[in-house]
Design a protein that fits this description.
By secondary structure, the protein is mainly beta. It has one domain: Beta Barrel (Lipocalin), CATH 2.40.128. The protein has 2 helices and 9 strands; from the N terminus they run H-H-E-E-E-E-E-E-E-E-E. It has helices at about 1-15, 20-25; strands at about 25-35, 35-40, 45-50, 55-60, 65-75, 75-80, 90-95, 100-110, 110-120. The chain has an 8-stranded antiparallel beta barrel with strand order 1-3-4-5-6-7-8-9. A hairpin with a 3-residue loop joins strand 3 (about 45-50) and strand 4. The longest helix has 14 residues, at about 1-15. The radius of gyration is 16 Å and the shape is globular. It starts with a helix and ends with a strand. Mean pLDDT is about 85; it is low at about 1-15.
Length: about 120
C-alpha cells in the first residue's frame, strides 16, 4: 500500500507544471551548448524578460530581438513573436526553473541546444 502511494506522489511531482510567477523577471544567459559542446558566442549577450500579462522580450546575439506573448503548458514554454508578421509559435522544454536558474532544451535545425540562464536583479 505504501509503495503505491509513493509511486502516485512521484507521478504527481513529475507532472507538476512550472509556475508562471517563478518565471517572471529578468534572466541573463550563462551557457549555450549544442550537442553538448559550447558554442563560440558570449552567452551573456542573451537576455530574456518575462512580464505580467503573459508578455516576454528576448535579446539575443547579433542584436536579434523579439517580443510577444508566452504561455506555459506543463514543462513546455510557448512563445509567439508578435513583433513580426507571420511569426509561428515556438516551444522549448523547461528542464529546470528555480528562484535563480532557468534551463531550456531547444531544437534548432535538428540539433539539441541547452540554454542556461540566471535571474538578474531588477533594473
Amino acid at each position: 500500500m505504501l509503495t503505491g502511494g509513493i509511486l502516485l506522489i512521484m507521478g504527481l511531482v513529475r507532472c507538476h507544471p512550472f509556475q508562471k510567477r517563478a518565471l517572471l523577471g529578468h534572466w541573463g544567459g550563462t551557457s549555450l551548448t549544442a550537442q553538448g559542446d559550447s558554442l563560440a558566442l558570449d552567452p551573456s549577450d542573451i537576455h530574456l524578460t518575462f512580464l505580467s500579462k503573459n508578455r516576454y522580450e528576448f535579446l539575443g546575439t547579433l542584436k536579434y530581438k523579439e517580443q510577444g506573448t508566452f504561455r506555459l503548458e506543463g514543462n513546455l514554454l510557448y512563445t509567439l513573436d508578435t513583433s513580426r508578421a507571420k511569426a509561428k509559435e515556438k516551444a522549448v522544454e523547461i528542464l529546470m526553473l528555480s528562484k535563480d536558474s532557468l534551463h531550456f532544451r531547444m531544437n534548432e535545425d535538428g540539433q539539441e541546444r541547452i540554454l542556461k540562464l540566471k535571474k538578474l536583479p531588477k533594473h
